Amino acid sequence: MNEYRDRQASDARLQERGALQLSGDAFHALADTMPQMVWSTLPDGDHDYYNARWYEFTGAPAGSTDGEAWADMFHPDDQPEAWKRWNHSLTSGEPYEVEYRLRHHTGQYRWVLGRALPILGPDQKIQRWIGTCTDIEDAKQAASQNEILSQELSHRIKNIFAIISGLISMTARGDENFREPAETLKGRIAALGRAHEYVRPHNDKAQAEIGKVTIRHLLSEIFASYPAFSENRLLISGGDIEVSDRAATPVALVFHELATNSMKYGALAADKGHVDLMIARDGDMILFNWSESGGPAIPAPPSHSGFGSKLVEMSVTQQLGGSIERHWLSDGLQINMSVQASRMAGS
Question: In the chain, what are the domain boundaries?
Answer without folding.
Answer: 2-135, 139-211, 212-347
